Amino acid sequence: MGTFVGIGFCLLAGLLYAAVVWGLPILIVVLLVKWVLRRFGVIKPLAEQRKEEAGANPWPESAAMKEDAAAARAELIADRRKRTMAAALKEQGRLDRLALVYYVESALKSGMAVEVISAALKEKGWAESDITAAFSSYKELMEISPAKNAA
Q1: Cβ pair 142, 78 in contact under 8 A
Q2: What is d(CA 13, CA 17) in angstroms, rounded to the nearest whole number?
Q3: How high is the pLDDT of residue 26?
Q4: d(CA 135, CA 104)
Q5: Helix, strand, coil tally for the chain in percent (to 5)
Q6: 115 to each of 126, 135, 139, 140, how far by Cα in Å?
Q7: Whole-model pTM?
């Protein structure tokens, strides 16, 4: 039993020696480097970092995120206005005008020119006043949403 105690003591003494010889100098160097970096303002003390983090926005918004939000808002407004216009035309019993506005919208989005759309509608027998009203209704919808118009 005495041999085990002697071996345990030797191991403990060896670990203590290694900690003093290797660990203490490394600890001193790390603390010295941190002190120098704080002294010259490279890093801030932990208390200052926590104060800044507490006041900072946890979800910072970039310019792209703000633009996306504005575009989404504009799209919602345009869709709401479109539904309002559709409801008003349905109440008036003007489903033909509503269909015409939707046709103009889909044709313009597919890349057709205004003149081509107008000529095609005249060929189908639509009155000039209905065609003009459909284009003006579509224009009103797009004035609300410039982001959709550009896309």
Answers
A1: yes
A2: 6
A3: 92
A4: 7
A5: 80, 0, 20
A6: 14, 11, 15, 19
A7: 0.41
Rounded CA separation 142/109 (Å): 11
For residue 10, give the amino acid letter.
C
- Residue 75, judged by CB atoms within 10 A of its CB (0-12, 13-18, 19+), counts as middle
Which residue type is seen at 84?
Answer: T
pLDDT at position 99, please? 81
Residue spans per domain, the chain: 2-55, 76-150
133 is written with which tokens?
Answer: 């009203």
In this prediction, residue 145 has a pLDDT band, given cuts at 50, 70 and 90, of low
CA proximity to 151, closest of 85, 83, 63, 72: 72
Q: What is the DSSP letter of 20?
A: I
- 82: nearest Cα among 100, 68, 69, 101: 101
pLDDT in tens, 35-90: 888 888 788 777 777 777 776 666 666 778 888 888 898 888 878 877 787 777 67
20: left (phi over 0), alpha (psi -120 to 50) or beta: alpha
